[in-house]
Amino acid sequence: MRAAVPGDEVELAALDSLVNPSPWTAEQFVDACREQEDRYECALVMVCDEQPEGFVVYSRVLDEACIHNIAIRPAMQGAGLGQLLLTAALARLREAGAARCCLEVRESNMAAIGFYRRLGFESGGVRRNYYTTAAGREDAVLMSRQLIEQEC
Q1: Bridge-partner residues for 69, per DSSP?
Q2: Is 151 a member of any domain?
């Protein structure tokens, strides 16, 4: 596992296109692949034989974090790479001072919803017509979890 670097954009977009009904373009990965410390988005990449097998894109603003995108190559799904990537991203976010992490997931993506629940995320609402589909629009389930316990 390593931080994304400039030049990863095309490979990450290609990987995303294998699993995402509305994949990101290479341009959408540019910010997450920058090397500067003060960038808005970051990405971790799981690499095997110099080929990306998975990635997670995340951000932090003050004490709030967000998971923007996560993908695992279809042949590698179910091997625990998603959990490793997400756990590593959450640890980095916690160390950077994030107290809470949020994400959106397609309402129809029950496997992803189950995955996030197993990692401590809870449903907290719905974002209507958030995702584009071949048949129109689909709702997003809003999920979040605490990264740092709140003191009373």
Answers
A1: 57
A2: no
d(CA 142, CA 103): 6
What is the DSSP secondary-structure string of 46-106? EEETTEEEEEEEEEEETTEEEEEEEEE-GGGTTSSHHHHHHHHHHHHHHHTT--EEEEEEE
Has residue 152 been placed in a domain? no
Asked, for residue 74, whether it belongs to a domain, the answer is: yes
Beta bridge partners of 149: none
Cα–Cα distance between 106 and 36 in angstroms, integer? Answer: 31
Residue 126 lies in a domain: yes
pTM, full prediction = 0.93
Q: Which CATH number goes with the domain that contains 24?
A: 3.40.630.30
Domain containing residue 75: 2-146
Instruction: Determine the Cα–Cα distance for residues 93 and 136; give it in Å rounded to an integer.
Output: 34
Catalytic residues, which ones? 104, 116
Residue type, 142: L
User: What's the domain count of the chain?
Assistant: 1
pLDDT tens sequence across 49-94 = 889 999 999 999 999 999 999 999 999 999 999 999 999 999 999 9
27 φ/ψ angles, rounded to the nearest 5 degrees:
-65, -30
H or E element, residue 111: helix 110-118
